[in-house]
Design goal:
With 312 residues, the chain is α/β, with parallel strands linked by helices. It has 2 domains: 57-150, Ribosomal protein L30/S12 (60s Ribosomal Protein L30, Chain: A), CATH 3.30.1330.30; 163-310, SPOUT methyltransferase, trefoil knot domain (Alpha/beta knot, 3-Layer(aba) Sandwich), CATH 3.40.1280.10. The protein has 11 helices and 10 strands. A 6-stranded parallel β-sheet has the order 7-6-5-9-8-10, sandwiched between helices. The longest helix is centred in the C-terminal third of the chain and has 15 residues, at 296-310. The two termini are 22 Å apart. The model is unreliable at 1-18 and 28-57 (pLDDT under 50).
């Protein structure tokens, strides 16, 4: 497995399932306040209280911090992202456990196999109430588990790579997640996310990729036109797609197909003309019946499969 660049951190004890790293400071403060405040007489009249899920003050600061990771601003501030769902957490625990800050489960979560996998990976498990889980979850019917992870990724190595995917303005997180899955399935060596493309750490991208998005090296926020110069210097043939192209990707010469940088465009408008016109070749996906276009993730999957087949 390729090495991922990360910041150093101190790992907590493996068997302390209730030690919530986000709650430590809050608990110390609450404990101090309890010691300093006189205890109420047992006969004191208690005021009626609102249900827990309706009271903002019932949610500790660390939980609100975690829920902020659903936004790009919150992720940038904390340097963390959310990985939600059984398959996603399983993937993260298996391949990227050193990025995990904590794993949180609903009190009723009963997937014993995944619990054991998490413990084997020496990761911390914390329990939340259903109301707390609902506050964080981005899914209407969640699976009762998510992980909080540090944002880190490996950059593509253009010297050793043979297939690179260039993404120009893909905005649907589900589509980007599927593109990452295609990349893993068909051996794409790296992904370059152009400006205007959805954040790869968006919870819906993470979920759409089934958590495997970190297995493919990538870089984000890139000016694609500037990146073309470096790719050509490294021997890549930049290939764009067009329904009006005369050839398919399998018609490329052996020299052109040695190192391919495949340009994929926006769901609705396609690739920006100022970007696509700088490509070295234009290809189409042959189809039996007249169809204007395929879904961007489907098109990427077909082309990535064809490239993989060309490499044998």
């Amino acid at each position: 497995m390729k090495k991922i660049l990360r910041t150093t951190y101190s790992k907590p004890a493996a068997d302390d399932e209730d030690d919530n790293p986000w709650a430590n400071r809050t608990r110390r403060t609450e404990k101090k306040a309890t010691l300093e405040k006189p205890e109420k007489p047992v006969f004191a009249k208690r005021e009626p209280r609102e249900p827990r899920e309706l009271r903002d003050e019932a949610d500790p600061p660390w939980l609100k911090t975690i829920s902020s990771l659903a936004t790009e601003k919150g992720r940038e501030k904390e340097g963390m992202f959310l990985a939600e769902g059984v398959r996603v957490v399983s993937e993260i625990a298996q391949y990227h456990k050193d990025l995990v800050s904590g794993i949180y489960v609903d009190e009723s979560f009963d997937n014993d196999d995944l619990r054991q996998k998490i413990k084997d990976a020496k990761l911390r498990i914390n329990s939340l109430t259903p109301a707390q889980m609902k506050l964080v979850s981005a899914v209407v019917s969640g699976q009762g588990i998510f992980a909080v992870c540090r944002m880190a990724n490996e950059k593509p190595n253009f010297d050793t790579a043979h297939t690179i995917t260039l993404i120009d303005g893909v905005q649907d997180p589900g589509n980007l997640g599927s593109i990452f899955r295609n990349a893993v399935g068909f051996g794409v060596d790296g992904i370059i996310l152009g400006r205007g493309t959805v954040d790869p750490f968006n919870p819906k991208v993470v979920r759409g990729s089934s958590g495997c998005f970190l297995r493919t090296p990538f870089e984000a926020g890139i000016d694609l036109k500037e990146r073309f110069a470096l790719l050509r210097q490294k021997g890549f043939c930049i290939v764009a797609t067009s329904p009006y192209a005369k050839k398919s990707i399998t018609d490329l010469t052996s020299r052109q197909s040695k190192k391919i940088a495949l340009l994929i465009g926006n769901e609705g408008s396609g690739t920006n003309k100022q970007v696509s016109e700088l490509a070295d070749e234009w290809v189409k996906i042959p189809m039996e019946n007249a169809l204007e276009s395929l879904n961007v993730a489907v098109a990427h999957g077909v082309l990535s499969y064809q490239i993989a087949q060309m490499r044998g």
